[in-house]
Structures are given as structure tokens and as C-alpha cells.
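Appendix B, Record 12. Input sequence as logged:
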Amino acid sequence: MPIAPRPAALIATHNVPPVKTTMKFISKQSLALLGAVVMMVVAATFAGARDSDTGPSKPSYKIIAVAELPPEGQATLNLIKKGGPFPYRKDGSTFGNRERQLPHQQYGYYKEYTVKTPGANHRGARRIVAGASGEYYYTRDHYNSFQRIVDQVTSN
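Logged structural output:
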């Protein structure tokens, strides 16, 4: 059987036949509308982040006196004030405040410390978060809520 001559296009592309494609173009109006929608979404995202970052200038917290902390919390607070030594490797690590429950500060301002949970074989949910200016916050539910720790609760 004789071999048929090959078209030049097949020879030039190493035996790969040419592919015909059709390209649909987006109209200028559709492209402009799409761009406007993207810009609105981006603007709304950043506006929401900016509003929630600033938050109220002085958030209100429930107050807890040192004497009202569980004994393990009092022990942890004493260790923090002494500078250690701490029982858990992660004690003293940066608390990022991703939950935005505490006043907005620069990253690295807050440090977290574990409050031992009796009977648990892990770190548990209780923590004390210390601010660089000397303020302390207690959470018993792994950062869902905080109480500001004070030496004594005063009544008005």
C-alpha cells in the first residue's frame, strides 16, 4: 500500500495535526461589570476588617478577682509574675488575638499561659493571657470569652 503524501502542516508540527479553536470574547460592558463587582467585594472585605480591628476603644469585660480564680489559675498567675519556670512548652508564646476578644494591639503584645485542668492529660481549655502593659485576662473556654483579672473587686 503506497503512503500518501503528508500535508506540510503535519510535517512542520511533528505529526501533530493543527487544532482549530474558537475563542469567545467577553463584551466590554460585561468585563466592566465584573470588575466593578470584584472591586465591591474587595472593598467590603477590607472595610469589614478595618471596622472590626478598631473595635470599641475600651471593651467591657467581666471582672474576676485573683482570689476568685481557681487555685491552678492563681498558681499560673504567680508564675507569670515571677517569670517562670512554666510547666508547658507553649507557655509564654504569642497570643495572636485572632478571635478579637481582647483590645486590638500589635502582634506580639499578648502572651498566653496554660492554667492546669485537674484530671486532664492535655493542656485543657483554661488560659491566662498577659498583656505587655501588665494586664491579665482569664479564659476558661479556650478564648471564647475572657474575664479581666484584678487584684480586688471593688463595689461602687
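Residues 47-57 have pLDDT under 50 and may be disordered.
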